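Regression report. Comparing outputs from two consecutive submissions.

Submission 1:
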Amino acid sequence: MKRAGILNRQLAGAVAELGHGHGVLVCDAGMPVPDGPRLVDLAFRAGVPSFAEVLDGLLDELVVEGATAAREVRDANPAATALLEDRFPDLELVSHEKLKELSAGARLIVRTGEARPYANVLLRCGVFF
């Protein structure tokens, strides 16, 4: 058994398969999940696990070279806005509709139990060297 890091076997395996340039959408429970990308659904109950918990767990294991979120987050979810701006100083903002379109090209989607609106971010994997 792993000692630390991501313990969920589906998520740990999916993370291990990611490469440079692959997209990972971390999303709230209400985000429409497109057909195509691999889905790891962690949602258990409303708010569990939270967007922040899952995002920070993934950031501990991934090299991220870019991040994109919906600009609507700024008005609808101040907590998610603060989290995203703290983690990603160069955060790109697009319309929620555009984020949904971009998510179809993700390699992996991780659905959280987050129940606050627009708690979604599309990560672009980088390399460690």
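Submission 2:
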Amino acid sequence: MPLIALTGGIASGKSTIARRLAEHGATIVDADQIVRDVQAPGSPVLAAIASTFGAEVIAPDGSLDRAALGAVVFADKDKLGQLNAIVHPAVRAESQRRFDDAGHRDPQSVVVYDVPLLVEARVDDPWDLIVVAHAPADIRRRRLVDLRGMTDAEAAGRIDAQVSDEKRLAIADEVIDTSGSIEETLEQTDALWERITSR
């Protein structure tokens, strides 16, 4: 069972690549979804977040107020580090459970871990392949403004809160250049799938 890590900076087109790989038959394990799952109301992770960052990051319905938490941690690298120390171990355990489950269901499946924070949290895990979705920061910043409605300052802050492109590219076994059209990204993804499945 090939275990592939797919990573990339915010607005790099990583989700487009993951969707295409799923169309080809890959099992996608989404780190962002796991984060949401382990932070569900009543979870130990959410309790630890509330204890560390205060009741103001909890919404009236008891769920995590992601915008309020984001405003706190993306402006302060130390606080972001505190958050990661709470969340990453729980995400690691749950992702491994999902990898194992996929392998039990189909030992021949290609499992793709769609993970934004690979460099920060999981780079030394035993991946069979690390794929990096890459577009220059100025293109990603424009996407955040045009497609997600962020201000220039918000977009720059989100990009700056992540590791540098250089660090991300340094760990890549494969790079998919997402700076062009979606069609060009999909063509590269199709070629990647051919290489993975012909091994």
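Expected: both submissions complete independently.
Actual: both completed, but the second showed a warning that disappeared on reload.
Relevant detail on submission 2: The mean pLDDT is 94.
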